[in-house]
Design goal:
- The radius of gyration is 17 Å and the shape is globular.
- It has three helices and eight strands; from the N terminus they run βαβαβββαβββ.
- The protein is of the alpha/beta class.
- The strands form two sheets. It has a four-stranded mixed beta sheet with strand order 1-4-3-2, with helices on both faces.
């Protein structure tokens, strides 16, 4: 039996704002759609399921996010996940320049939870809250950075 990771799905409050955040960081939109109908109800397990979706990919096509904004049923606001809570945790990206990536995130009102850490001179990394409270980790591989 083979298995392949396809994407990570994230429900968001504002699809357009979330797309803008992730595309500014370097992802690209592969496609958009509005989904509903019996097949969507069955697949997701919600009656009257109706959502706007967008699939984004890294430039190298090595990872995808499926973002969805519910039209029906009404989205349920929850408090953002904390780093030590059980459940879906975060989405992580390796970036070439963490300072540039953080400047882009700041233009969207998104800032590190506590700053940028240096892990054994191998990675500079940080967690930040993206749109809809999504926990995002950004990491810069210091071994790939010219000194």
């Amino acid at each position: 039996m083979s298995i392949k990771m396809v994407n990570v799905g994230i429900a968001v409050r504002d699809l357009e704002a979330t797309i803008a955040f992730f595309t500014d960081l370097g992802l690209r939109v592969l496609g958009r759609d509005t989904v509903s109908g019996d097949w969507a109800d069955t697949a997701v397990g919600l009656d009257g399921n109706h959502a706007k979706i967008a699939v984004l990919s890294t430039p190298e096509d090595d990872g995808q996010l499926e973002l969805f904004e519910y039209i029906h049923p009404d989205a349920i606001a929850t408090r953002p996940t904390l780093p030590h809570e059980i459940g879906m945790h975060r989405v992580s990206f390796q970036v070439d320049d963490i300072d540039e990536s953080l400047a882009i995130a700041a233009r969207h009102g998104c800032y590190p939870l506590r700053g940028v850490a240096n892990y054994q001179d191998v990675y500079k990394l940080t967690y930040l809250r993206g749109p809809s409270g999504i926990l995002v980790m950004l990491a810069q591989d210091l071994s790939a950075t010219p000194q």
